[in-house]
Amino acid sequence: MKVGLYPALNDNNIDAGQASSQRQLSLSIAAIAEATDASIPLNLCLILDHSGSMHGSPLETVKEAAFRLIERLKPGDRLSIVAFDHRAKIIVPNQVIEDINSIKKKIDRLSADGGTAIDEGMKRGLEELKKGSKDTVSQAFILTDGENEHGSNDACLKFASQAAESNITLNTLGFGEHWNQDVLEKIADAAGGTLSFIERPDRAVEEFGRIFERIQSVALTNAYLIFDLTPKVRLAELKPIAQVAPDTIELPVQPKQGKYEVRLGDVMTDVQRVVLANLYIGQFPQGQQTIARVQVRYDDPATGQSGILSDPVAVDAQVLTAYRPSPNPEVQQHILALAKYRQTQIAEQKMQQGDRTGAATMLQTAAKTALQMGDKGAATVLQTSATQLQAGKELSEGDRKKTRIVSKTILQ
Asked: Are strands 137-144 and 249-250 parallel, antiparallel or unpaired?
């Protein structure tokens, strides 16, 4: 298995007469399968809320979604299941999948009762995942429908950081309208996973399946993108690097031995990760100039190798005395995706400050940005939220969650 790394500038031409030029560097990263590659076992943990508020249809549909996932596991895959209310218990200890019917019966015995302590579920889930983490792709689904009323949100974020350090990816699923979006989003972002909103019980099977398809295509893990910038080239000082696909996330940058690193986490065969870096480029003489070299460091669970470095890829620009722009439409789409996310973030801040008019204006701007990139689903959600605010109405919890979700990704 190898890494495909494809750089592109939003404008490949640079004006030789300018003392400084700003460019957006897009980097698409995917795993490239080879004929001799072995199948990589999945190490999956389902961390499921069965508190009292999950009574009835919610818990029953989550059980059905869990059944469907288990049926899709392959020989050699590992599974563990943790259920939590205000305490956590192991329903299925980490094991290689053999007796599916026995596992289904254990899930089916779950009943709804008690409060909610997400951190307790995370703690037990990570303990189980670590038992089967060697030479596997380790993933967790964390599902809850409520606030972490009996637990600690700080502990949740600490466990998310520990998961990333242990090469474990956490995917969070919020069920209904009353879960804490900030906490679940931070957990998923910190541990390289995805956040999903299950608005209605009948969407549970679909959302479980969508995330499962993504994790089935994970081929490489613990990946870091490394930037080696040429002298006269620097990163922007504020929010210089973000991921824009498959989800939009601001990525923390770590300076290291004169280079810069950002953690990507999993690298997939079927889904590209796209990262956008904001660069300032100093004055260069005319001709083709290398402004950066990029590479990826990663682990390959199929071979048990870690810290593998891909070949460096040069990022070149054409410096012209008679400058003419050479825009890249694909990179422009990535720029719009990041703009949609950041505009929605500003709108949320204005809502928190009580500035309804300002929030509505920013949501309208985000809706226009979504339309520019052809994301009609997001445009509809964002404009609907803007219109409600303009009419003097409060956004419901469900509307706020949909608004955040569509800012981070393109609706399927």
From this structure: unpaired
Which residue is listed with tokens 């260069």? 284
Assess if residue 243 is contained within a domain. Answer: no
Beta partners for 25?
A: 9, 277
Residue 389 in tokens: 């605010």
List, for residues 33-66, the tens digit of each pLDDT value.
Answer: 876 667 899 999 999 999 999 999 999 999 999 9
Domain range for residue 22? 2-35+222-238+248-329
Under the phi-then-psi rule, with left for phi > 0, alpha for psi from -120 to 50, and beta for the rest, what region is 288?
A: beta
What pTM, to 2 d.p., does this model score? Answer: 0.93
Residue 302, SS3? coil
Q: What are phi and psi of 326, to 5 degrees?
A: -135, 70
Q: Which of 23, 5, 16, 20 is nearest to 327 (CA)?
A: 23
CB atoms within 10 A of CB 210: 13
Q: What is the pLDDT of residues 111-141, one digit of tens each?
A: 999 999 999 999 999 999 999 999 999 999 9
